[in-house]
Amino acid sequence: MATRAMLRAFSKSTFPCRTSQHLSLASVSRSASTLVLAEHEAGSIRAPSVSAVVAANVLCKDNSISVLLAGSGPSLQEAATHAASCHPSVSQVLVADSDQFTHPIAEPWAKLVHLVQQKGDYSHIIAPSGSFGKNILPRAAALLDVSPITDVIEMAESDLFVRPIYAGNALCTVRYTGANPCMLTIRSTSFPVPPTLADSKSKEAPISQVDLSTFGEDSIGNSRYIKQTSQDTERPDLGNARIVITGGRGLKSAENFKMIEKLAEKLGAAVGATRAAVDAGFVPNELQVGQTGKIVAPELYMAFGVSGAIQHLAGMRDSKVIVAVNKDADAPIFQVADYGLVGDLFEVIPELLEKVPERK
Ligand SMILES: Cc1cc2nc3c(=O)[nH]c(=O)nc-3n(C[C@H](O)[C@H](O)[C@H](O)COP(=O)(O)OP(=O)(O)OC[C@H]3O[C@@H](n4cnc5c(N)ncnc54)[C@H](O)[C@@H]3O)c2cc1C
Question: Was 268 annotated as part of a binding site?
């Protein structure tokens, strides 16, 4: 069985596809002052937004990171307090408090970014590469007349970034030669929050309100908030979980998929799925892992009845330890697995459920 280490070495060093899109040789000199667009929930800024601060810190060693939060009500103020102490490099938190931001709709947010950029003249604007950042950043970039760079996994220099292309099979180095601001979405799995940071109580940055007096009512645009549905809050968030248990088409039905959920419960894990499992209606599409789903990099990724299509691997190949169970010994998932078991998942999962102790 080819080991994952071999595959990684192949794709990251000897694979001939590390491309360079150096648009011009002239390097743009910037003194970095970065604005991070942060998403918050229940009075805290979300983990991917803290990763965006970690990424911003690679650019700005001189503590000049501003965090922008928008919303309304008391939970916004709680989130601002959290943002103010989430990383020692945060120099200020900007809060836009208005009913227009109660839901993260892209149009008013993009207009807000435009307004804040006009006042702050930031060299970089960074958002995490989830649905929040992917929704807002391109619109804000259009308003600011710059071209964003998405899915950055490495900040090589303040204007040189690495991002995956072809479903993660090649890495592309891009030099930004446009005008300020350089707008980026970052993959949070590539900028993990150091555990020591979560434990430490860092200094509190000042919090100030964004002046919205010039912010018109016309920013609502064509989008309308209908409702938000989210996964069971008892379970860890798929994007940040330490363990992910994924089921594929091999599970055969939504009823059988419940075995995956039971195992995840026992292990305190998040549940993932392949696109085939989602398309077959076993689980909702928020659980999809892969090129067109979520990108995960947990400590442990267990895949049951997953063939290992390239589009699926694009979302999980950076997991620390990969375990695969498949009845087909030639399934491509075994090429990236650290531990592989050729077997019938309908025998393996019940046995695991029996042997794994209940969580206290
Ligand atoms: C543009 C594009 C984007 C895509 N994006 C994604 C994406 O984001 N995520 C994604 O996952 N896919 C994505 N896909 C789809 C992808 O190409 C595959 O079709 C999909 O990942 C296959 O899912 P699967 O492994 O569950 O199903 P299959 O490929 O059908 O594999 C099922 C596996 O289960 C095994 N199996 C069956 N029964 C058992 C059993 N009893 N015990 C053990 N093993 C068993 C089989 O041997 C087989 O290997 C995308 C495709 C395209 C074209």
Answer: no
**Does the structure show a pLDDT above 80 at 2?**
no
Nearest CA to ligand 1 atom 26: 248
Q: Is the ipTM of this complex over 0.90?
A: yes
Q: How does the average pLDDT of the chain come out, rounded? A: 87
pTM for the full model?
A: 0.81
Q: How far is the CA of 312 from the centre of ligand 1 (A)?
A: 7
Residue 31's pLDDT band (boundaries 50, 70, 90)? low
Q: Is 117 helix (H, G, I), strand (E, B) or coil?
A: helix
CATH code of the domain containing 297: 3.40.50.1220
Residue 285 has a CB neighbour count (10 Å cut-off) of 12
Do the Cβ atoms of 117 and 179 come closer than 8 Å? no
- Where does the pLDDT of residue 218 fall: very low under 50, low under 70, confident under 90, or very high at 90 and above? low
* Residue 246 in contact with ligand 1 by CB distance below 6 A: no
- Counting the structural domains of the chain, the total is 2
- Largest interatomic CA distance in the chain: 64
Say if ligand 1 is within 6 A of residue 315 CB.
yes
Question: 72 and 145: one domain?
Answer: yes
